[in-house]
Amino acid sequence: MADTKREIERKYEGPPAGGDTPLPDLTDVPGVSRVIDKGVAELDATYYDTADQRLATASLTLRRRTGGDDAGWHLKLPVSEGVRDEIRAPLSDSVPDDLTALVRSRVREAELVPVVHLLSARDVRHLVDASGTLLAEVSVDRVRAERLSGGAGSAEWTEIEVELADDGDPAFLDKVEKKLRKAGLRRSASASKLAKALEDTAPRKSTKPEKPEKPEKSGRSGKEAKGEKATKATKEATDAKSGPPESAPRTAGDHVLAYVRAQRDAIVELDPAVRRDVPDSVHRMRVATRRLRSTFRSYGKVLDRTVTGPVGDELKWLAAELGVDRDQEVLTEHLTAALDGLPSDLIMGPVQARLDTWSGARRSGSRQRLIAVLDGRRYLDLLTTLDTLVAGPPLLEAAAKEPEKVIAKAVRKDFKKVADLVGQALELSPGSERDLAMHDARKKAKRTRYAAETATPALGEPAAELVKSMKSLQTLLGDHQDSVMVRETLRELAAEAQGADENAFTYGVLYGREEQRAAAVEAALPGEWEAIEDKGAV
Fold first, then answer.
1. Within its chain, how far is the Cα of 486 from the centroid?
2. Most-buried pick from 1, 364, 396, 530 (CB within 10 A)?
3. Alpha carbons 250 and 240: distance in angstroms, whole number
4. CA atoms of 288 and 464, how far apart (whole Å)
5. Alpha carbon of 154 to those of 18, 241, 274, 526: distances in Å?
6. 420 with 437: CB under 8 angstroms?
7. Over residues 301-309, mean pLDDT
8. Is 477 a residue whose pLDDT tops 80?
9. Exposed, middle or buried, 100 (CB in 10 Å: 0-12/13-18/19+)?
10. Is 349 left (phi over 0), alpha (psi -120 to 50) or beta?
């Protein structure tokens, strides 16, 4: 089984002039009492990636290493600058299945092959305080890299690595860095040894200028001229897909594609976290799928719905699969909090035990199902489809227009749908029909919120204000829907309790409280909506 370690570290290198910069005396770093020499370890690591370096592009590293005190397989996932989660697995001849699963959203069906071989002589020192507690580990690494795939170069360098001790204060690294900088060291330009090895051993490009192609002598055929005329209307829009992702959005298509790209990236990046059951990861991945699907629906004048419609259907399927787990989390958390809030004299029978049994059984089943989905062909095909769509988006004529007009019109259209649904809900009497109408209004509020998020870079403050308004409405209506779902669950638990000859009184008390919560939301809705209508859309 793999285990996880949070790594907080910084890498340094000497001045470009060459030669090893000696490690300065670190005993006068504030907080350091002693520097303990731990000797030199010989490390032998082979890094794995796809032939086109999909892991390296995403700043992930996968290696098999011997030597030192942590020999084995290591997968490093970026968390933030200088912070990574290292997933460890025991030594084996091939990549462990646990780690293969964690990179599947990046790798898909491509083969993982050795790309770089690193030999490192690691001179280790421990910085400890007066009580002997480890503050950080400092190592001077003399590295030799050999390219195994995509070239045959080699490189050598020396770097200094400072890794914070477990549960240490990150501010301590600033103190060490101050001392290192005074000694002439600077932060490494490469985020990892692999990144530097790939850069330093990459095949050198030819510096010879390419010969210009000779112009064709023949003129255009009538068919070619007709084809050029047909594509002229969307030329500016299609330019957006060939430009660099980081370029500033200009057209309506630019803005929509920037949002689409961000959600696609979020789905792929969250995949390992969902597999590891990281808190809130399922919810965040589900939100990304919903944002993406909503964008396809809201901006049908920008992206061709005949192309995005089937993709949206697949995103709806994925969101539903993610929802099996997420909805279970929400229900369990809410029921647990509600039960904790009851006075002890209102709790009759083994209510907590029944809730734990119900939650555990469903949670186990939903986790297994979700992992099977992420390992399945349908999900991987969806990821590939999204990559294809982002690389060659089905842009329509409106995509080339100014964003202020096209995007604002789409947002206003969504806002009107919300207004109609809220109006319908307010006209209905309390009951199942109103519950359904409020749920529909909530879904449209989310769609409008996501459309406004897409519009914010182009429209500024008005769109940002609409995001806030829709989020507030979504939260209110979400509380109501949660109450509906909790009441259904309480009826189910009460029936099970009665079947087991247990006292069902407490379930009735909780049910009554949920009815009151729903009534409070329904009473607050008219005032909430009136305030939103006064602000209006963009």
1. 29
2. 396
3. 9
4. 19
5. 18, 36, 37, 70
6. no
7. 97
8. yes
9. middle
10. left
Residue positions counted in the chain: 538
DSSP string computed for 130-199 = TT--EEEEEEEEEEEEEE-SS---EEEEEEEEEEEPTT--THHHHHHHHHHHHTT-EE-SSSSHHHHHHH
Q: Determine the Cα–Cα distance for residues 105 and 11; give it in Å rounded to an integer.
A: 28
Beta carbons of 440 and 473 less than 8 angstroms apart: no
> Residue 47 and residue 258: Cα distance in Å, rounded?
32
How far is it, in rounded angstroms, from Cα 190 to Cα 193? 7
Q: Is 105 left (phi over 0), alpha (psi -120 to 50) or beta?
A: alpha
Report the C-alpha gap between 348 and 509 in whole angstroms: 11
371 burial via Cβ count (<10 Å: 0-12, 13-18, 19+): middle
* Apex 502 CA angle, 500 and 507, nearest 5: 115
Structure tokens at 88: 């460890």
pTM above 0.90, yes or no: no
Residue 485 has, within 13 A of its CA and on its CB side, a CA count of 16
Q: Do residues 334 and 493 lie in contact, with contact meaning Cβ atoms separated by under 8 Å?
A: no
Per-residue H/E/C for 203-269? CCCCCCCCCCCCCCCCCCCHHHHHHHHHHHCCHHHHHHHHCCCCCCCCCHHHHHHHHHHHHHHHHHH
Q: What is the 3-state secondary structure (H, E, C) of 30-91?
A: CCCCEEEEEEEEEEEEEEEECCCCHHHHCCCEEEEEECCCCCEEEEEEEEECCEEEEEEECC
Report how far apart, in Å, the C-alpha atoms of 241 and of each of 158, 230, 236, 249, 393 are. 41, 18, 10, 11, 7
The owner of tokens 């189910």 is: 492
Q: Using the predicted structure, report yes or no on whether residue 32 has a pLDDT greater than 50.
A: yes
> How many angstroms separate the CA atoms of 274 and 257, rounded?
25
**The two structure tokens encoding residue 315:** 């995103």
Question: Is residue 294's pLDDT more than 80?
Answer: yes
Cα first-last separation, the chain = 52
Please state, in angstroms and rounded to a whole number, the distance separating the CA atoms of residues 113 and 115: 6
φ/ψ of residue 78, rounded to 5: -70, 140
Strand, helix or coil for residue 121: strand
Closest by Cα among 250, 235, 244, 264 to 387: 264
- The span from the CA of 147 to the CA of 153, in Å, is 5
DSSP strand pairing (154-164 vs 3-13): antiparallel
HEC letters along 424-471: HHHHCCCCHHHHHHHHHHHHHHHHHHHHHHHHHHHHCHHHHHHHHHHH
Beta-bridge partner residues of 89: 73
* pLDDT single digits (tens) 130-140: 999 999 999 99
- Give the strand pairing for 113-128 and 134-147: antiparallel
What are residue 63's DSSP bridge partners?
47, 74
The 10s digit of each residue's pLDDT in 339-395 is 999 999 999 999 999 998 888 777 656 788 899 999 999 999 999 999 999 999 999
